[in-house]
Structures are given as C-alpha cells and as structure tokens.
C-alpha cells in the first residue's frame, strides 16, 4: 500500500463492521458531510476569475522539496507572489505562489498556449534529475489540490495528489508540457447564488509541437527534452457539473483504494490486545487480592520468619532512585507531549485540523507543546518532591525540564535543516522562522514551565503509605529472566503491537505525501496504547517487587518506554521495504526525524507506565498492615 500505484487508504466497507467498531474507528469519516470549522465555501459568478496557485515540487524518492519556479515553467506577467499563510506551512516547506494560468468560471479553453521557454544545458540536466527522481507538481484551485486520476486494473478510479514532472522511458526523458484540467462545479440556486468548485482533476501529457503549435490530439508524439532547446507549454480547461456538494469535495482525496482485509487485520490486533490487557489485569487483581488477604492475617512466629514477597520491601519501595532528576524530567516531558497529543487529536476530531487547513496540524502541535509546558513543569516538580521532600532542588529540575529535551530536539532539527539548506531545497526553514520558534520556546514555553513547577512545588507532597528505612535492604540475587533490561525489552512489545499498524499509515502519510485523516481511529489506538502501557508497567513492577527487588522506578518507565526501540527498528524495516531514498541527505533526514519520533513515543509511553505504577504501588502498600 505504500507504493505510488497504491495508497494507504482502504475503502471503508463499514456496513460489514459491527456498529460499535464503526462508530469508534471510522465514524469521523462522516464529517465530510459537514462544513469544516473555519472554512466557508466561495461562490463564483459566471466569468469570474479563478486563481490557480502552485506549490512545492515533491518527491518520495528524495524527500527534498523545491520551489515550483526552480524549473523552467512559465511565470506570471505581474511577477511571482507568495501565499504562505501560517507557521506550519513554513515548517513543512510549502511554497505557495501565483501562476500565469488564466481560468474563468465556466469558460472552457482548448489547447491554449501558455508560453515558450528556452532552456540551456544546465536547465536540461536539472529537468532530467527531477524526472528521474519522480518529482510531482502540486497545484491548487479554490484551496483544493490538483488530483491526477488513475484507473487500476480490476478496481475503481484512484486519485493521487499532484502529477509527475515527466516520465523516464527507454533512457529518454519526456516532459509533461501540456495539462488538461477538468474543474467540477456544483450549483444550488435554492440555497445560494453562483457556483462552487468541488473538484480539480488534471491529466498531464507530453506532446511535441507541430509547426510551433501544441499538438493536443489523442496520441501526440512525446516531447523529448533533449531533442530541442525550446519548450512550448500549453493547457486545456473544461468545466463539468457535479452532484458532489462543497462539503464532500475532499472525499476523493480521503477515500483511497486498498485491500479491505487490512482493516480487519487492524481490528483483529486491537481485539487481541484488549483481551491480553484484560487478562493481565485479571491476574493481577486475583493475585493481589490473595496477597493482601495473606499479609493482613496475624502471622505465627514461624510464618513471620519465612515471610517473602513484596511486603518485605515496604521500607525501601519508595527509596529515591538513581538519576532521579533525569527521571523527573522524562516524566514531565512525557506528560507535556501526552497533553499535546490528546488536545491535537480532539481538535482533529472536531474538524479543525483537516487537510484543507494546510500546515494547521504541525502549527497546532508546536503551539500546544509550548502551552503544555505548564503541565510538564508541574509534573516534574511534583515527582521531584516525592523523592526529596521540601529539600528538593526543584529549580535544577525545572531548568532541565525547560531545556533538556526541547534543546536536544531543536539541535537535531537545526542540524538537519542545515543539510537541507545546503541542498538549496525549499524544505529548509528560514532563519526568521527559526527565530520565531526560539521566541515561542524562550518567551512562552520556559515561563510556563517555571510557573507550573512553582505551582507543583508549593503543593503538599504526595502522601506515601510507608516510611523509607535509613539503611537500604539487600536485594536477593535475581534470576536471568528477571533482569530489568530483559523484562523491559519484553514489556515494550505489547505497546508496539498496539500501534504498529497505525504507524504504517502515519509513516506513509509523512514519507509518501499522502493525506491522513483517520483521526477517529487514531484516537481509538491512542486509548488502547495508553491502557496497554499502564498495564504492562504495573505487571512488571509487581513481579519485580514480588522478587524483593525494590528498584522499580526506572523499570516502570522503561517497561513501556522500550516500545520506542521497536518503533525505530520498524522505521528501518519500512525504509528498506517501502522507500526508495538514496540521497545521503535524505537518508540522514529520514532517520533523524524517525529518531525524534521514537524519542517522543518513549517519553509518552514511559511516563504513562511510571505514573500508573506509582499509583499502583501506593495502593497496594496502603492496603496492608505494616508493623
């Protein structure tokens, strides 16, 4: 599903699904029948000018976007103007500009000459390189991207975003120098006046001019860029009435073809994970009920001497772990990222982050991460006070909370951006945007982190059910299968199993430039992953305490956090099996961003696991009698 001939979108087939699963997993697809918040339809009158805007050239092979006018395309007479609107578009490398195409409502054109360009040897070499790397041209009309329509054998029509610069065939490079545009419109005089554009389809052609004029016949001779130094660009425009309403015009982009069986595989894996989570919870509850009942009985003298299990370590179970400050920062950062993720998904479910809002998803994530700094600072300070009480050095913890992970992420991003800038790609973020990010970080996020930490430290310390002994208890020698490293690696499998299928869709969206809009299903997967992380950490913490090993803090974090290792290993497999990236900058960029994504997943899953385990440990030690 990740190749260009396919797309990671399966037709829903929801009538065959149980109603509950359809509501949870795919119900948000029905949102296409309603107006998206923040977007209003635009009505055109007859002969009104319709603007065609151009965006960056993209390639799944190089992942390095370039500006549309970096190739010898026709330029508008009034000059090139930028239309980038928000921070997210700048971060994504969008380069939206005007174009010379003259389109008027309901006015059809046939084989209209746009311009003639003369190219030199260097420009031809650039064209050959772009064609070989399968670069796509991205246009838009009325905020609707151009869709190239393909018909696959034995299946319905498939729409892909954008069309190829040209094609490479038998060692020759053919440029798409003619584009046939079909604009679909809808009208309803009873509800509004004028016409609404509901579709924008393009069919590129490579055609050799005849006597200096474009050949728009059904089978023109293909245009070989090496055959001449002159390129004649032309276009055709047709208008077709459509029954599609304006609110449903994105359906062709969001409902792509693909194997239905894949959705049933997703459903099956989620059901298995729910069953495993329920089984783990049931075992723990039954075992704990027996343990607590046994520990609360008055023991005989012989039973007291032979007493084993987690009750024996009650005087050490809340002992301060090694590198406690780092643990506080990890949990605080994970809480910050989790808050960002939840609010982002809720906003997407409400329609505020639809594909029609280009760049809105990335911009919202950055702003929400900045605002969620208050929760990150609060959580790190609260945990710091658990370890050190009123003597806690919360200022050091807060400084690390504000600068450690954001600084590391920004540093990696800055280095990757320098490499992209060195390739003269439009995907490089300008220094003015980098400065804006620094202002967000230092001017908003850092003060919020300190305010949250100050608030958290002012609150009373979280009450612990048992006191910590002054002298640490000796830990019995543990069998090989109870070593923290091994148990953590095993524990990470389950959260990864809950997310890996959805990860495929997300990565296809990022690296194959497909639309992602299954936020309803993503919300369901997030809930499953969080429950799984909590339960696997609780289970491994319980087994470790039963073996009289009280150093559970980092185990609880890494038991679920280690799933990030499998995410990164999966990204390596995805790179080798689904992508065709060869350029060294593109390879470094891919693994750099996937490393950051894995770190984010580690912080979120590890934080959930540790906080759940802390609640669990407080609960079990508060339910037994301590002499």
- What's the quaternary structure here? single chain
Q: What overall form do the CA principal axes indicate?
A: elongated
Helix content: 40-55%
Structural class: alpha+beta
Strand order in the sheet with the most strands: 4-15-13-14-8-9
Strand content: 5-15%
Total strand segments: 15
End-to-end CA span: 62 Å
Radius of gyration: 29 Å
Residue-averaged pLDDT: 84
Q: What's the story with the biggest beta sheet?
A: 6 strands, mixed
Low-confidence stretches: 1-38, 302-307
The number of distinct helices, counting runs of at least 4 residues, comes to 17
Describe the structure.
The protein is α+β, with helices and mostly antiparallel strands and 627 residues long. 47% of the residues lie in helices and 12% in strands. The protein is built from 17 helices and 15 strands. It has helices at residues 19-25, 87-91, 121-132, 251-254, 261-295, 301-305, 324-349, 360-371, 373-388, 394-422, 431-458, 484-491, 493-511, 519-546, 553-561, 563-578, 584-621, and strands at residues 49-50, 52-54, 103-104, 109-118, 136-137, 139-141, 144-145, 147-151, 157-161, 163-164, 166-169, 172-175, 178-186, 196-205, 230-241. A six-stranded mixed sheet has the order 4-15-13-14-8-9, with no helix packed on it. A three-stranded antiparallel sheet has the order 2-6-7, with no helix packed on it. It has a two-stranded antiparallel ribbon with strand order 1-3. Strand 8 and strand 9 (157-161) form a beta hairpin. Helix 15 (553-561) packs across helix 17. The longest helix has 38 residues, at 584-621. The protein starts with 18 loop residues before the first helix and ends in a 6-residue tail after the last helix. The model is unreliable at 1-38 and 302-307 (pLDDT under 50).
């Amino acid at each position: 599903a990740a190749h260009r001939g396919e797309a990671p979108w399966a037709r829903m087939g929801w009538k065959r699904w149980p109603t509950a699963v359809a509501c949870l997993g795919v119900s948000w697809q029905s949102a296409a029948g309603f107006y998206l918040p923040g977007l209003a339809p635009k009505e055109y009158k007859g002969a009104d000018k319709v603007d065609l805007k151009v965006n960056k050239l993209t390639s799944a092979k190089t992942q390095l976007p370039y500006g549309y006018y970096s190739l010898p395309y026709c330029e508008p007479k009034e000059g090139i103007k930028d239309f980038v609107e928000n921070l997210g578009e700048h971060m994504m490398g969008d380069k939206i500009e005007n174009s010379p195409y003259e389109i008027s409502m309901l006015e059809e054109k046939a084989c209209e000459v746009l311009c003639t360009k003369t190219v030199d040897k260097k420009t031809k070499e650039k064209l050959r390189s772009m064609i070989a790397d399968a670069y796509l041209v991205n246009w838009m009309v009325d905020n609707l991207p151009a869709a190239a329509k393909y018909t696959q054998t034995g299946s319905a029509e498939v729409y892909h975003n954008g069309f190829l610069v040209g094609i490479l065939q038998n060692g020759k490079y053919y440029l798409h120098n003619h584009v046939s545009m079909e604009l679909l419109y809808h009208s309803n005089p009873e509800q509004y006046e004028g016409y609404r554009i509901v579709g924008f389809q393009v069919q590129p052609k490579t055609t050799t001019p005849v006597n200096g004029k474009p050949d728009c016949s059904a089978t023109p001779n293909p245009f070989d860029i090496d055959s001449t130094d002159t390129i004649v660009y032309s276009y055709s425009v047709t208008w077709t009435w459509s029954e599609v309403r304006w609110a449903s015009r994105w359906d062709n982009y969001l409902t792509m073809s693909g194997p239905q069986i894949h959705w049933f595989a997703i459903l099956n894996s989620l059901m298995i994970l729910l069953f495993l989570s329920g089984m783990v919870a049931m075992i723990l509850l039954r075992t704990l009920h027996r343990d607590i009942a046994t520990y609360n009985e008055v023991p005989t003298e012989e039973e007291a001497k032979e007493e084993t299990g987690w009750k024996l370590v009650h005087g050490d179970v809340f002992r301060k772990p090694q590198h406690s400050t780092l643990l506080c920062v990890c949990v605080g950062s994970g809480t910050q990222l989790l808050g960002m993720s939840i609010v982002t998904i809720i906003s997407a479910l409400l329609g505020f982050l639809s594909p029609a809002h280009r760049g809105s998803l990335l911009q919202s994530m950055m702003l929400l991460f900045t605002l969620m700094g208050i929760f990150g600072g609060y959580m790190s300070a609260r945990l710091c006070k658990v370890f050190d009480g009123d003597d806690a050095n919360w200022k050091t913890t807060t400084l690390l909370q504000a600068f450690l992970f954001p600084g590391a992420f920004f540093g990696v991003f800055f280095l990757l951006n320098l490499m992209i800038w060195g390739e003269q790609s439009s995907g490089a973020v300008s220094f003015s945007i980098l400065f804006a990010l620094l202002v967000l970080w230092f001017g908003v996020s850092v003060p919020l982190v300190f305010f949250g930490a100050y608030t958290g430290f002012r609150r009373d310390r979280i009450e612990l059910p048992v006191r910590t002994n002054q002298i640490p208890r000796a830990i019995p020698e543990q069998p090989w299968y109870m070593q923290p490293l091994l148990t953590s690696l095993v524990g990470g499998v389950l959260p990864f199993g809950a997310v890996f299928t959805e990860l495929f869709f997300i990565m296809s969206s990022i690296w194959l430039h497909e639309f992602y809009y299954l936020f309803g299903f993503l919300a369901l997967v997030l809930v499953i992953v969080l429950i799984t992380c909590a339960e696997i950490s609780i289970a491994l913490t319980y087994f470790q305490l039963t073996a009289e090993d009280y150093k559970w803090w980092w185990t609880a974090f890494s038991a679920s956090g280690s799933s990030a290792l499998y995410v990164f290993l999966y990204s390596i497999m995805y790179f080798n099996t689904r992508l065709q990236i060869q350029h060294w900058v593109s390879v470094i960029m891919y693994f750099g961003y996937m490393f950051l994504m894995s770190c984010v997943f580690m912080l979120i899953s590890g934080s959930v696991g540790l906080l759940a385990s802390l609640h669990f440990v407080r609960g079990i030690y508060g339910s037994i009698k301590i002499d």
